[in-house]
Amino acid sequence: MSFGTSRPVPRPAHHHAHHPPHPLILDDIRGAQKMLSGVARMTAMEGSRYLTQLVGAPVLFKCENLQRTGSFKLRGAYVRIAGLSPEERAAGVVAASAGNHAQGVALASTLLGVRSTVFMPVGAPLPKVAATRDYGAEVRLHGQVVDETLAAAEEYARNTGAVFIHPFDHPDIIAGQGTVGLEILEQCPEVRTIVVGIGGGGLAAGIALAVKSLRPDIRVIGVQAAGAAAYPPSLAAGRPMVVESPQTMADGIKVGRPGDIPFQLVQELVDEVRTVSEDELSSALLLCLERAKLVVEPAGASPVAALLSDPGSFRGPVVAVLSGGNVDPVLMQRILRHGMAAAGRYLSLRLRVTDRPGALATMLGVLSVADANVLDVSHVRTDPRLGLTEADVEVHLETKGPAHCTEVAAALREAGYTILG
């Protein structure tokens, strides 16, 4: 769903003329910026030579992966909790999150002297659970999916009077996230396009409001994972729609339904929402790691994935918001392998060999001559489909790219091996 940049842009002066009234104005974001002074870092802006060459215009990264707690979420959480009344603060706060929002709420609460309880799914990555505890929250593991976790947190809020801190659907949260937009304008005044990942929409809504209020000419492009893309159908329908069982490795943007307040702002101010595949996400994460030396989680790499998938469609200078860097090491291992496979640098083959002494060494010799690096080898001898003197061997190889993959497979066939898959 695409919108032209010439749409009328809400200006603070016309705030009350909107129908329904606009939930937020630029002054809210400026107020949030003052509040966050000395709390959130003004994160670095780093140029990417590789993407600059690819796009044909300057590409810069806004490195929110280097923010305190490892993502932009601290900004919104702090502004929301700082805005509570003394009575609300005394009752404590509660949140539900599998990751970044949990850590943002935990640290913001600790900095403000407010008691926090964070509900996380039972399968939440251990480093994220440990980090949330370290930032000072009481962590309760509940539910297999985030919806169940959310229901438990809301029930806790009803029973205890604790204030529920929503991850994206609140004006204070959006105002806090919008401070990223003000920083981009300050750090790169010549920017013409900003690319940002979208889950519930809090970050994109905040950035779009900040940027369009001051510079309506700047394009703001949102990016969703194709397997969890609720915004395109919602924008087409004109109201938030639900994606049943969203599936993506990018847990930071794996949200089944847009937030009501972010949706209104995204619909009005974001020029376009694109989707990216899982292959594109893993390739983007690999690029950030190898080329930029930046650890970025899949959700944070989504703008880079969009740039890689259609580099010619962006007016530069482009700022890509790397929204977070909290990636579970186990997931990182899987993604890197996936990213290498997507880039044609990882090859997995199943071969039929004669089961006799030296057969494996001979096959490895062929791979050595072909200059493929063997990462892993496994033998299958007991499959009923195998003849008495046969064995299947699965090999995982590191290669130099798609052409090298083809050469390795050809060398094996030439040596008389049957490739099964």
Automatic annotation (TrEMBL):
Keywords noted in UniProt: Allosteric enzyme, Amino-acid biosynthesis, Branched-chain amino acid biosynthesis, Isoleucine biosynthesis, Lyase, Pyridoxal phosphate
Pfam families: PALP
Domain named ACT: residues: 348-421
Pathway(s) served: Amino-acid biosynthesis; L-isoleucine biosynthesis; 2-oxobutanoate from L-threonine: step 1/1; Amino-acid degradation; L-threonine degradation via propanoate pathway; propanoate from L-threonine: step 1/4
First-tier enzyme category under EC: lyase
Subunit structure: In the native structure, TdcB is in a dimeric form, whereas in the TdcB-AMP complex, it exists in a tetrameric form (dimer of dimers).
Family per similarity comment: Belongs to the serine/threonine dehydratase family.
Protein name as annotated: L-threonine dehydratase catabolic TdcB
Protein source organism: Streptomyces scopuliridis RB72
